[in-house]
Specification:
Elements: E1 2-7, H1 16-24, H2 31-39, E2 47-54, E3 60-66, H3 71-81, H4 89-93, E4 100-107, H5 115-122, E5 126-135, E6 140-149, H6 157-182, H7 186-189, H8 205-216, H9 220-227, H10 231-245, H11 250-259, H12 269-277
Antiparallel strand pairs: 1-4, 2-3, 2-6, 4-5, 5-6
């Protein structure tokens, strides 16, 4: 793990190629993409999320960017905002920042086992994360998180030093972007529309039954026997459910159930018996 506090006045000369996209994105829906483009002058990062924290309230998502499909990152981000942020080490640190900036880097293997680690790292196949945090006024803090997918090599000391060099500019841009959001900028407020994300509530009763049994560990033949339907019908319900949820695998289904806290509902008696046999 790497942790450093930086004086805001210590920012050195930075390449124009890194700063141009950063400040061009302020107040727009592409702000997180501009953060991602800027930090990729240091090393390869795959995803970025930007939050504003206010006092002890849940954070506000003010930007999300990705060089790949956004669904898995979005599901984890919504779960983070929905409660997992309380396990966040940066969240517990920002209150003491004062006028300094915080740069933190960790690999997934360094994190304690928790729902936060499972949902935001393991289930989304994230290897490591670099964070830049700064106080923006008496009660608000800006945090930008830069994620790297599984398979990426650990950042070097030189990478981290370069990231610290960009941290001041990232914090300045974040402060301006967050202020525009509080002022009612459509570009910031419209960044993420959670209502457009697929949810388990979209499923029919039978599709939901099939999905719950899949998550519990039932095979297609066992689900058919449990629901007294043909195996081909089970496959049809599964395909319909996956299409509605915009997923392609059981792993993604399990992540969706976990992040939307549906899997925590009491299982049926049959599910309990089946789980005990495995």
């Amino acid at each position: 793990m790497f942790l450093m506090k930086i004086d805001r006045n210590n920012g050195g000369a930075l390449p124009v190629s890194a700063l141009r996209p950063l400040f061009r994105g302020i107040g727009t829906v592409t702000f997180a993409d501009s953060l991602l483009e800027t930090m990729n002058h240091v090393a390869v990062f795959d995803h970025c999320t930007a939050f504003e924290f206010f006092d002890v309230k849940p954070p506000t998502l003010i930007g999300m960017g990705s060089y790949g499909p956004t669904q898995r990152v979005m599901r984890a981000t919504l779960a983070y905002v929905g409660g997992l942020h309380v396990d966040e080490p940066v969240r517990r640190t920002i209150g003491d920042l004062g006028e300094q900036l915080l740069v933190r880097y960790h690999e997934r293997s360094e994190l304690p086992h928790s729902d936060w680690r499972h949902v935001c790292y393991e289930a989304t196949e994230i290897n490591d994360r670099l964070s830049v945090a700064a106080k923006t006024d008496d009660n608000h803090w800006f945090v930008a998180n830069f994620f790297r997918d599984n398979g990426r090599q650990k950042l070097t000391d030189n990478d981290l030093q370069q990231a610290c060099g960009l941290a001041v500019a990232v914090a300045m841009a974040g402060q301006q972007h967050a202020a525009l959001g509080r002022a009612g900028s459509d570009g910031v407020r419209g960044m993420v529309d959670a209502s457009k994300m697929p949810t388990l509530e979209q499923l029919s009763e039978r599709e939901n039954q099939v999905c719950r049994l899949i998550v519990t560990g039932f095979s297609t033949s066992e689900i058919a026997e449990q629901l007294d339907v043909l195996e081909s019908s089970v496959s049809t319900y599964r395909k319909r459910a996956y299409a509605k949820l915009q997923i392609n695998s059981r792993r993604e289904l399990m992540q969706l159930y976990r992040t939307q806290k549906i899997a925590s509902t009491p299982p049926t008696e049959q599910e309990v018996v089946h789980a005990g046999r495995r």
